[in-house]
Amino acid sequence: MNAVNTTNSPAAANVPGSFNPEEFLITPARTFEDLKIGEIFRAPSRTLTDAHSAAFQTVSCDNHPVHYDAVWAARHGHSAPVVHGLQVLAFTAPGATMFPHVIGEVFIAFTEQSCKFLKEVHSGDTLYPGLEITDLTDHGGTGTVTTAATVYNQRGELVLSGEHKYLLKTKS
């Protein structure tokens, strides 16, 4: 019989106890102290459809006609039904980026969020969300990461601008 090498081998998957889910990382985890102001975490772009808006309307229970009635929207000065603002904000969710994978087990809480809706978003628009670290505040034992949250559309227009804050464990 041949001996099975259990390190970095596909055959290792068949050896009981050789796989540890806690070591199955997409990227090596970093600490609060490893983060740098100016780092950007992008989410994949997405093109919104009527189905996305309908699904969000169902989940949010927001039944205002500006979101689904083209005639009502036009009568009130909109070129088309407007995608829910909170749906656009949801595109800035940190979990849509690599950020939670980068910080790994040091995450404690998502503590704060704010935004301004700058332009209307409609079905057919492609959104490009991102988070940029703008501040790192060490509190001794914990640290706050502040990010600028932005969403651009396919025309390069900034449609949402905001801020997120996260509480992380520090080395100290």
Automatic annotation (TrEMBL):
InterPro entries linked to this entry: HotDog_dom_sf, MaoC-like_dom, MCH/BMMD
Residue ranges annotated for the MaoC-like domain, each copy included: 37-149
Protein's recorded name: Acyl dehydratase
